[in-house]
Amino acid sequence: MNPIMLLLAAGLLCETFSFSSMSLPDVDGPLERKTALVWMHPDRERGIVRESAQSLENCSSLEWMGSTVIGSMEQAIVQNDAQGGKPSPHPPGEVTIEILPLRNELRVMIDGKLYKKYKIALGKPQTPTPAGDWKVINKYTHWGSGFGTRWIGLNVPWGIYGIHGTNRPSSIGQDASHGCIRMRNHQVEELFEWVKVGTTVSILGHALGEPHRNPRDLARGDSGADVQLIQSRLRSAGYYEGPCDGKFRASTEQAMKAYEKAHGLPVDGVVNQHDYMAMGLVE
């Protein structure tokens, strides 16, 4: 019998099965994030954290075939994604994209239901992929060297971010980029045909990053959702009057120094762990 069929017969489907009856590992880190920006879905991501360790373990036996199994007891779709299998038909209905950083996974949703998923590369901890709900603002073929065969741009206000191909396919499944979402070229070519300008791309997570890691230090020249969060806190406390645009400029540094001086912290204008704690962002 075909080895894939043997696995299906054995019931080794994952991802859409319920794991509520299993004892799942607690993989939360030492720092508990407080809900700062609702649109970043921190609670949704935490639910995914607890399921992902078990589900990925159950799926590991499939990876040698380069296949991803999406299924339920009634239906299973085997996709030979890693090796460039037969393209899926153009999906009917409204297409939206969900990105799960803890799984390094991009999901294509049709009318809110899972249609297809891909392994991806995301940003390094020092250059994170921006959490939030974004929109596609442009699409290009062969956009530039290093971006593979397709570019799908997002409306992130503090920089140029997008979904694109790669000339480094070995990075797929890792946190290896400068913040963009990397896909295998044949897969981004498929996705490129399904999305349009205005398509919603939801990157799950929290502004301060993955829960098992400490937030990164922030200083002048940095940008991101975490910078935007700090600016918002400084503005609420009366130390910052500039735009909350996620760009750490001199005005943010000056506001940070004023906050540190007023709270008896080392005055360096750099956001470190003691600053996060003083602001009530970590415990």
Automatic annotation (TrEMBL):
This is L,D-transpeptidase family protein. It comes from the Bacteria. The active site is at H164, C180. Keywords: Cell shape, Cell wall biogenesis/degradation, Glycosyltransferase, Hydrolase, Peptidoglycan synthesis, Transferase. Residues 95-204 form the L,D-TPase catalytic domain. Pathway: Cell wall biogenesis; peptidoglycan biosynthesis. Transmembrane segments: none annotated. Belongs to the YkuD family. CDD domains: YkuD_like. Pfam families: PG_binding_1, YkuD. The keyword Hydrolase applies. It comes from Paenibacillus residui.
